[in-house]
Amino acid sequence: MFRALSQTTVRWRPLEGEGLEHLTLTQTDTTNGAVIRAVGVLIGNRGGTPYGVRYGIDCDAGWLVRKLMVDTTDGRSLHPRSDAPGQWATSGGTALPEFDGCVDIDLAGTPFTNTLPIRRLGLDCKAGKARLKMLYVPFDTFEPVVDRQHYTCLDDGRLYRYEAEDRSFAADLPVDEDGLVIDYPTLFQRLSPETI
User: Fold this and answer.
1) Which InterPro entries match (predicted)?
2) What is the DSSP letter of 158?
3) Predicted TM-score (pTM) of this structure
4) pLDDT for res 195
């Protein structure tokens, strides 16, 4: 459904306020298998709070998140890791049982994290609605919480519906051949390759 991953660089801008995200996505073969690495830098203003964030996400070849590294320009950091699907621990190894069952992650300021469940699940139109429990990081408080979300494929490999389980928000997300969001109605717009 999606093409084999090669190094890709994309940028998005928020539709409200000023900001920019620059993301580089790579796949590296290691002795333990392939590692998909996303590295992004964001500046923006969400909910009236300006932020500067650098993040890194490491996934295995099946797009299962193994490590999350988020650092803000004001000195806050989150570096949880997942050694087994749905089980999280701090970088020092302390278990985080409040996030048990959260296989995927969602970062507030980027459309990239929508790619994670889309690629991991390989959803097609026959699959129906996937109900997910996410480890969500809001950029205003920077305190991770559990967030329940739904994904449905509307057009194989091209269009997916995102819905908050509490029905507070929904969006139909067109994606490219890598599964990266092209347009995120009301929130983000992808910039053309010429502007990168």
Assistant:
1) Glycolipid-bd_prot_put
2) T
3) 0.94
4) 59
